[in-house]
Specification:
GMP Synthetase, Chain A, domain 3, 2 domains, 3 helices, elongated
Length: 135
């Protein structure tokens, strides 16, 4: 898996995968900001990852799926680098024939067992850095 991130303008970058899919990374101030900042993307990645699994599991149980809303909040350290110290997801499923117990089980499986994004932020990941001379 590879992502190429390029400068677009101050506090704005574009990341692109091997298939040409792009996303803006926006660190600008509210009012001119048009996309998510990196830490916001991490929260969105966890919600999106779990969402795919939740919808799939609900449908595999032959339940009626209407909608899924996920509110994901993150608490950051007060000191730099201000990394996340707590992430909370609140799931709301719209399904006339799925009971709360089934939904709880599915949501916990999605978040705690199947979501690779959540697993990644819980893990100690080896991050390396390589620097090339200016072109």
């Amino acid at each position: 898996m590879k992502i190429i991130t390029r400068y677009k303008e101050d506090e704005l970058f574009v990341a692109e995968n091997d298939q040409g899919n792009k996303i803006s990374i926006d660190m600008r101030q509210p009012g001119i900001k048009n996309s998510l900042a990196p830490v916001e993307m991490m929260l969105a990645a966890i919600a999106g990852c779990a969402a795919v699994d939740i919808v799939s599991m609900i449908r595999k149980k032959r339940k009626t799926f209407v909608d899924l809303i996920i509110e994901t909040t993150g608490e950051r350290k007060e000191t730099h680098p201000r990394g996340l110290i707590q992430i909370h997801t609140k799931y709301t499923l719209v399904s006339p024939d799925t009971n709360l117990e089934t939904f709880k089980k599915v949501a916990h499986l999605a978040t705690d067992k199947y979501c690779s994004a959540a697993d990644s932020v819980k893990a100690k990941i080896n991050i390396t850095c390589e620097v090339r001379p200016p072109a």
